[in-house]
Structure formats: structure tokens, C-alpha cells
Amino acid sequence: MTYTITGLGAEQFAPLFAMDDAALATRGARRVTASADRGFPCRISLEDARAGEQLILLHHVSHDVETPYRSAYAIYVRPDVRAATYCDEVPPVFEGRPLALRAFDSAGMLQTAALAAPGDADKAIRDLFDDEGIAYIDAHNAAHGCFAARIERN
Pfam families, from UniProt (predicted)? Predict the structure, then answer.
């Protein structure tokens, strides 16, 4: 069983970085500066921003489906980064964080879920994909609830 984890496409967020703070506020977003090397996870690069880096904090629909499981929450994105791709390995942003893994069928309906302790994400992902009915998994930070990444079956 193989899987791929891909960061969000940078192009959808690029216009935000040209906006001033007032324009961002009309969209419910804001510019922030990372105050530490951890705790500001970029959903494009799938890495934590470093202290002093600028990010945009915004509301993002991560599970855009016509089911009761449609989901949205706050995420961070950084400018001038590319969407990261990881095949059969977890990205740096998963390291040291407990994750909630929500497994969906191809119709966007939740089939099952799992909690992965730090260091256990790869095994938990593979275990969920043992069920052929699982089309993809959405990973969320277990504590804060924010979307971490989409995991697709290869």
C-alpha cells in the first residue's frame, strides 16, 4: 500500500500576500509573524515556519464536499513556497504532533477515524488504507483541530 501527502497549492493563496491588513481582515484573515520555530505549520510546504517568518492565518475549507462532513478551520500559509509532496513518508509538520486521521470513501462520507500519537502516523495511515473502501484521509492536529494535510491512496 502506498500513499501520497501533498501540500495545498500555493497559487490559491498568492493573492493574499499582496493584500494589506485591512483587505485581509475583510476576508477574516490576518498576517502573522512566527514567534518560534515550531507552532506555525505551513499547509503548503508542510513544514513549520521559522521564527520571524511571515504567514497568513486564514479560514480554509479543507473538505469541500456536499455531505455532512464538509469541514473548515484556520490554517497558516507562507509566501514563496511550493506545495510539498511526500510518498510513503510523513512530512516534517506531522513530527511530534498527535494527529486525528479521518478516513473517507470516494463520496466524501466518513468511514472511520484514528488517533496517531507522535511517531505513529505512518502506521496509522497504512492501517486505515487496509480498508479498500477508504479513498483518502484528512489529517488534523488532534489538539487544535486544524487541517494538516490530505493523504491519498496511490
Answer: DUF1203
* The C-alpha cell that represents 96 in the structure block: 511530534
Residue tagged 470513501 (cell numbers): 105
- The Cβ of residue 96 has, within 10 Å, a number of other Cβ atoms equal to 10
For the segment 2-27, what is each residue's pLDDT rounded down to a tens digit? 999 999 999 999 999 999 999 999 99
pLDDT digits (tens, 9 = 90+) for 25-84: 999 999 999 999 999 999 999 999 999 999 999 999 999 999 999 999 999 999 999 999
| Local structure of residue 2 (DSSP, 8 states) | -
Alpha carbon 80 to its chain's center: 18
d(CA 138, CA 154): 15
Q: Based on the number of CB atoms within 10 Å of its own CB, is 124 exposed (0-12), middle (13-18) or buried (19 or more)?
A: buried
